[in-house]
Amino acid sequence: MVTAIVHVKAEVDRITEVAQMIAGIDGVSEVYSITGEYDLLAMVRVPAYEQVAEVIPGRVNKVPGVLHTETHIAFRTYSKHDLDAAFSIGLNEGD
Q1: CATH number of the domain where residue 51 is located
Q2: Which residue has the higher pLDDT, 82 or 31?
Q3: Is residue 64 a part of any domain in this protein?
Q4: Residue 61 and residue 55: Cα distance in Å, rounded?
Q5: From the centroid of its chain, how far is CA 89?
Q6: Do the domain assignments include residue 95?
Q7: Could you report the per-residue pLDDT of 44-63, keeping only the tens digit for each?
Q8: Range of the domain at 64
Q9: Rounded CA gap, 52 and 27, in Å?
């Protein structure tokens, strides 16, 4: 799984609309409204590196109201959610 963190600068009067449109794109797992230089942060999770190009420049950057994006690719993921998922592989509910 490839994870990309995408900072998004959006037209101020369209931030909510832009966030909702980005959140609806396949491969985007979450969108956060943030403080600082950028307005939104989108988490992109796709199975293969090649799909990053399909999602970010191919779809996110084309959302009306997106002015600029900056993308960071994660080398590794360290999160409780991912660790819990890894240890639950093969377990059924109630086991």
Answers
A1: 3.30.70.920
A2: 31
A3: yes
A4: 9
A5: 24
A6: no
A7: 999 999 999 999 999 999 99
A8: 2-87
A9: 8
